[in-house]
Amino acid sequence: MRIRVLGAAAGGGFPQWNCACSNCRSVREGKAGVYPSSQSSLAISVNNKDWYLVNAGPDVHNQIESFSALHAGPGIRETPIAGVILTDAELDHTIGLLQLREGSNLTIYGTERVRNCLHSDFPVFPMLASYCSWEWQPLSPNSEVQVGPLGEGEEESVILETVPVSRKPPLYSKSNNVDEGIWEIGLVFRNIKTGKSLAYFPTLERMTPSIEACFQRADILIVDGTFWSEDELVEMGAAVRNARSMGHLPISGEAGIAEMIAGYPARRKILIHINNSNPILLKHSMERKRLEQLGIEIAYDGMELEV
User: What is the mean pLDDT of residues 217-229?
Assistant: First the structure.
């Protein structure tokens, strides 16, 4: 199974268009060791022919153009993109569906809460009904589904496991009832042929027994690295809410993500969904060096993995 990191950033990407923090200024000034990145997303394939996007953010068009395996052809309207797998209904992960309107016959995977939201609060599917014909495939928390068409036989398939993460709805949603169901999920992709697996959790607000079990058996972890510290944005004067209230465990600290994932047996541990304020974006920062000492990598646009 081939995995391509199409984007590694959180929010509006890095640099963020409306931000003048030191990190964003460093990118704009072309300083060494600081590189731009787009909204977090993956592309996954078993056969290098049929590809699935994991989330579709505002940068999806440029991300597709940046990776030749996703380019259209050989037919005039033929595309290797077979579908999109959604981890939630956040704008950063779904607004790109509007840019994919020319692609008919895509399969969209997501939970029932996400489907309902994309038909009502953010009515993507009603808006697109006149442009394309898409198939919806439901994902149920704590269940598995075989994703296709990723290959011609079972050995060329991927088993997708859905893991509950959060009941927190998007800010734009009219719903504020956390009892309505799971809004955010993590994904475990298991390659039937190799038996290897990748766990992808671009948001992580707390650890649960089911998440711990996934992390314990995964060969590669790609995990939420949004904020370095709990009060990162508050101290900058950029927000009034801390990391956990936004649904993200901080990387640092006694109960932070770095300490947590360092002890798991995965051969590669990678942080993704990195906010523009995070000091780990700076190649020579002390925070990044600390992660390197723990054997933790930082995702970047164009990173490739094999499972």
Answer: 97
